[in-house]
Design a protein that fits this description.
194 residues, mainly alpha
Length: 194
């Protein structure tokens, strides 16, 4: 398994190294588009979260694997082009499950959110999977790795503070960096990165 520092370094390399390179700026555009769509209302979020997140996951995985060019934003529509119904269902089920687990206490909801966190990447890699198959596979590969992903997310605290101090605008770069790092984490989990 790669260390958190190695995963972040791979993500920076995927994003072109410098925060002002075209690759990083286009990743920022991807994050802004996804955030704008999901920021409209909670009902819209519930319907579109699966579709948008599948497209976003495919973009970051493609960039990490160097199978798509950094300016290929068409991949964001892959969540609609494929099995859109299953992608919508995936987003709804994950949101519902995390909500229901959070009713018990906050901690079980957080644990389950981490257990389901790789479902979008799995569905992006295996469009033939149903929503429940992607969730089950995510739980399987995250068994024993939830704390590792939590610590990886925690390692972004400094970046988040600096991004927030820049009137929140810096968070756009941090968001792109964090999503690229999660794609590297997924690739490491499935054995693509050693």
């Amino acid at each position: 398994m790669l260390s958190n520092a190695q995963l972040r370094a791979k993500a920076r390399q995927t994003l072109g190294g410098s925060i002002f390179k075209e690759e990083w700026l286009l990743a920022l555009v991807v994050s802004v588009i996804a955030g704008a769509i999901l920021g409209v209302s909670s009902v819209v979020v519930l319907v579109f979260i699966g579709i948008v997140t599948i497209g976003e996951s495919k973009y970051y995985l493609g960039r990490s694997r160097q199978t798509i060019d950094h300016n290929n934003l068409e991949v964001l529509l892959d969540g609609i082009k494929g099995d859109a119904g299953s992608n919508v269902l995936l987003g709804v089920l994950i949101s519902l499950y995390v909500f229901l687990w959070s009713l018990l206490l906050i901690i079980p909801g957080i644990v389950k959110a981490y257990a389901y966190s790789m479902a979008y990447y799995i569905k992006a890699d295996h469009p033939e999977y149903t929503a429940t198959q992607a969730i089950d596979e995510s739980k399987k590969i995250m068994n024993g790795n939830k704390m590792r992903l939590f610590l990886l997310d925690l390692s972004f605290i400094g970046w988040i503070i600096v991004g927030a101090l820049c009137f929140g605008i810096g968070m756009l770069w941090v968001n792109a960096y964090q999503k690229a790092t999660r794609a590297e984490f997924y690739r490491n989990l499935i054995g693509e990165l050693n």
